[in-house]
Amino acid sequence: MPEITHLLFDCDNTLVMSEDLAFEACADVANEILSKRNISHRYTGEQLIQDFVGQNFRGMMISLQAKFGFEMSQEELEHYVKEEENQVIAKLEAKAEPCDGVMEELDALQESGKYGMAVVSSSAQRRVKASLKKVGQAQYFPPDDIFSAATSLPKPTSKPDPAIYLFALERLGKNADECIAIEDSKSGALSAIRAGIHVVGYVGSYHGEEKRQEMIQLLTDLGAEVVMTHWSEFPDCLKEVEES
């Protein structure tokens, strides 16, 4: 197997505990859209996570239109994409925290100098950068190595589309088998796997042992080579992939 030279990190609930905060804001915007159309259904942040985890807001709105049978103009969609981004960033800048144990691992990786490190996210680049800055992780990731499916691509998309990983590989000048992606969701893992990248799964951000075990099974079934429940396991997971 070629030597692993780059680590590609998902951001939301992999580096930064952001999903609960983001989905609170997202639910407010989604409910406004439904209310405007006299659709009685209302979402909580938790319900949105269950339905749409791993998708960015644009992807969620496409799914929402299909689920409730309505259409949004491109202009209206772009308005709400920006509105949701603003509301999420405000919450993240106030409350975001790093995932448990990740700072120690990022410190060790940076000190070793062995791997290039990049962020590959479905979320808008402005949101990703706000998250990383709030929790003190911006120092680990050069601005040009933060890739967003919502912002970086000529045509915005969302994981599980592999486009953002393929774009990151091209920009980094790397082959897929030289990289490992760290992902916490089905859509994120599928995106990396479809791009041919090795995947380490992470389930430490899920609440409750039952849910974590369910996600371990799901990520393993999708093709993650190893799954960790805490960031302290990362060195062993990395070694296991490199030696496989």
From TrEMBL:
GO molecular function: phosphatase activity
Entry superkingdom: Eukaryota
InterPro entries: CbbY-like, HAD-like_sf, HAD-SF_hydro_IA, HAD_2, HAD_sf, PGP-like_dom2
Gene3D superfamilies documented for this protein: HAD superfamily/HAD-like, Putative phosphatase, domain 2
Protein's UniProt name: HAD superfamily hydrolase
Origin organism lineage: Eukaryota, Fungi, Dikarya, Ascomycota, Pezizomycotina
